[in-house]
Amino acid sequence: MSYKRDLLWVSISQYAGYLFPLFITPILARSLGTESFGIYSISLAYITTAMTIAEFGINNSCTRLIAISTTTESHKIFTAAITVRLFFFCIAIIALIINLKLSNATQLTWDCTLASIPMLIGCTLSTTWFLQGKGYSRISAWPNVAARFTILPVIFLTVKSPKDVILASALMALPFTLASIINGVQSVKIGAQLTPVGISSILTVLKESAPIFATLISIQIYTNIILTYAASTLSVEEISNYTAADRVIKLFFAIIAPLTTVILPLISQQLKNSKSPADHLKKILLVHILIAIFFSSGCILFANQITSVLFGSNFKDAAEIIRKLSVLPILSAISHTIGTHGLIASGQGKKFLYTTISGAITSIATGTILIDTMKTNGLILTSIITEICVILVAAMHLKKVLKEQS
Asked: Most exposed among 113, 176, 219, 355, judged by the fewest C-beta atoms under 10 Å?
């Protein structure tokens, strides 16, 4: 299978992941209303964090390990990866229960989160990494895309009122389960099999995955975990309006993130061969900032129209939140360029890890103070301050890297 075809399917899968919320969020927001949509959003934040724990960075690490292994070695890696994931699935369930308990979650939030457990199971048993490592990215990508967009008409036809919030949570979990089953069958067809493994294979998977996991869980802290903390302070309606506004702002990543997936290998090569990598990064930064300014300007000017069209009249407060959050795409463009295009493309994964950890610490420190005192505005400020911190730390590391390369 050609590299270009693999790249195309990975790109399609990436875009589907970012565009799917654009279609599903308006349907759910209009059908569920502010209160039930808020509960749905909170439960999704809980389950997404648990999925990050269960996944343990294996999607990234084991794709590489499988790609460079022999057939016998790949069997051991496959078994070790599944073993590690099952262990961290148990840890994720424990963490999920603790998180719900500490947040004083309502019974309805518990019910919605439990209805989403198949999403966690699907994530745990997914073998996408094995297919991609073996060079079958097309086979791994199409079930994810098909399952997500097949569920759209089902949700549109069945989720009709706020009382259907548990049903909505359960239906949203189905694509992950279906894609996991299909990918599992395909993996077995191309040679995946469980085999007895020693502790050394398990330790190899843990060693390769741990740094990636630390990065991913740090990002979760200043995206989803801080939202679950806010749920213990803010009203459900406030959470609902913030989540709706946040979904609009995150559409910016539907533009630049999948693009990064496609061109990152090219950027890495150009940075390696470039006599002036700083100038190369400045060009990328300029393009990202211009896109961000255009996007943010649209959010400021048309916030009322955006919320009215996407979410309906019940989400009027979301328009003002969108305006206040409109600086985030510009900050994200800078942090994304410095972090992903600068540090990761230069092979500085450890420095990128330090950057995300600093963001997580900042988010916790500012969030626990600002959210309690300023409510929704505190949550907004926490997001902005965290992004600024990430930029400053990433820029400091990148400056050192560029100085060493010059």
From this structure: 219
